[in-house]
């Protein structure tokens, strides 16, 4: 591959915005999940299939499609998959039945590859000593997308209608799809095709053998992301329950807490560059566990819920940043496939967390959610401290 130019700061921030938009699509459902369930006449447990199948389809899509990023231009793939996201959102927007809505959401998950191609694209165009900062910036873009999706969806659904959320989401994705060819600089050539597509997929498995720590980093992020999804889906049901009595707008306002991560994550990335990814991750995990354990005693009122939610939003993205740092310093030609392993595990965790979060709430209410999250976070923290001792 030819020598690629370094990204300018303007390009880095533009990619951050693009990441925000393409990431947001999976999170509009969080504050409005109760409204969607009521509209289609399904139970809280059954509505959990929407985010669960979305996340599992994303894991399948990443396994089948993301490895192509080591052979085909990341730019070309990103544009193609963004168009697929746009079409899937249009199907969700127009769906007249629960089956069609689930189908659109599942297809959306399958095509949501762009947020994971963009960091690989950026990692090839930044100096190694700035990798943590740029990965943190793109992670902040992910947080911004989640923030806009959850806050905006909650408010729009409360004062307009939940379907209006998806009309707006489709328009935003259409705009990004049109802008991407200009936003992403060309010059990255397709790699020589020494093997077929099936053989390319099979090359992922020897990487697991040769780089075994990718399984640890992936498992940690699977638990991290799974508990994040489970928390916010259950929180939407908890806040809009008769016991709490709030509307979807309150769910959106509370999701605004994620704004702290936009400012803290780049600083945490710089700190991780200094102290090491594994040490920083273990510390972030311990802080997060402390916050999760506060959810039950402080879960009876919005004002007290702010404490554990702020703690989780401060350090949760840092766990992802440090996890990526453990493998994105390796050979450029391996990074997309290593990212594939990491993100597939992450979204398997997200899928399990999506269904488990709504099912635990359906069975035992807020107490069931808190028990589930405590288990997830305890295992995560144990793995993070094991990886700190195991890693080089």
Automatic annotation (TrEMBL):
<feature type="transmembrane region" description="Helical">
    <location>
        <begin position="165"/>
        <end position="184"/>
    </location>
</feature>
<feature type="transmembrane region" description="Helical">
    <location>
        <begin position="339"/>
        <end position="357"/>
    </location>
</feature>
<feature type="transmembrane region" description="Helical">
    <location>
        <begin position="250"/>
        <end position="268"/>
    </location>
</feature>
<keyword id="KW-1133">Transmembrane helix</keyword>
<keyword id="KW-0472">Membrane</keyword>
<feature type="transmembrane region" description="Helical">
    <location>
        <begin position="363"/>
        <end position="387"/>
    </location>
</feature>
<feature type="transmembrane region" description="Helical">
    <location>
        <begin position="134"/>
        <end position="153"/>
    </location>
</feature>
<dbReference type="InterPro" id="IPR011701">
    <property type="entry name" value="MFS"/>
</dbReference>
<feature type="transmembrane region" description="Helical">
    <location>
        <begin position="214"/>
        <end position="238"/>
    </location>
</feature>
<dbReference type="InterPro" id="IPR020846">
    <property type="entry name" value="MFS_dom"/>
</dbReference>
<feature type="transmembrane region" description="Helical">
    <location>
        <begin position="45"/>
        <end position="65"/>
    </location>
</feature>
<feature type="transmembrane region" description="Helical">
    <location>
        <begin position="280"/>
        <end position="299"/>
    </location>
</feature>
<protein>
    <submittedName>
        <fullName>MFS transporter</fullName>
    </submittedName>
</protein>
<keyword id="KW-0812">Transmembrane</keyword>
<dbReference type="InterPro" id="IPR036259">
    <property type="entry name" value="MFS_trans_sf"/>
</dbReference>
<feature type="transmembrane region" description="Helical">
    <location>
        <begin position="12"/>
        <end position="33"/>
    </location>
</feature>
<dbReference type="Pfam" id="PF07690">
    <property type="entry name" value="MFS_1"/>
</dbReference>
<feature type="domain" description="Major facilitator superfamily (MFS) profile">
    <location>
        <begin position="11"/>
        <end position="392"/>
    </location>
</feature>
